[in-house]
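Pilot study result, target chain (205 residues):
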Amino acid sequence: MPHSVDTVVFDIGNVLIHWDPRLLYRDIFGNDEEADRFLAEVCTHDWNLQQDLGRTFKDAIAERLALFPDHAEPIRAWDSRWHDMVPSAIDGTVTLLEELKSAGVPLYAITNFSGEKFAECQERFPFLANSFRDIVVSAHERCVKPDRRIYDILFERNPLDPAQTIFIDDSLPNVEGARAAGMEAVHFTGPEALRQHLQGLGFPV
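Predicted structure:
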């Protein structure tokens, strides 16, 4: 018999809060083509991942400025205007979070996030600070999803059974990583589909 799932573990970026660097760089460059080129060649996914692994924004910006001095203003904007990439919470998911919390469901989070910016987001979005019993932040642990280690950290720190947890993430590789760690996992495509999935598992939402 499979275990019943009674604990919910959330990803944060693009599950509970919107995050899209193109929003900032479309504004800076005035068109999609230049914004996409900048994100592909200058402030790249792999470069940003190093902040999720614990590199400070100060060091990250200095490293890019040394390599791309002609792009100084948009590089600095990655730090100074970072919150322009995060326009709002995803209200439907936040509503689900609040319903689960009100019902006493144990809530946790595992997120790939800069330590600095996550602290700022917890101030900006109070539900990130007061909803979870524990949050595994990649920058604090120096490892990122879908590395098996980051999921294991949650279970080393908390008296949880992976088989009784459901993990929610917008990234399919991260969902597959959670499943490999023994968790139930669902690929987030939107709040309503998530609500239906949670209802199907018996959660009071």
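One observation from the pilot: The chain is about 50% helix and 10% strand. A full batch analysis is planned for the follow-on phase.
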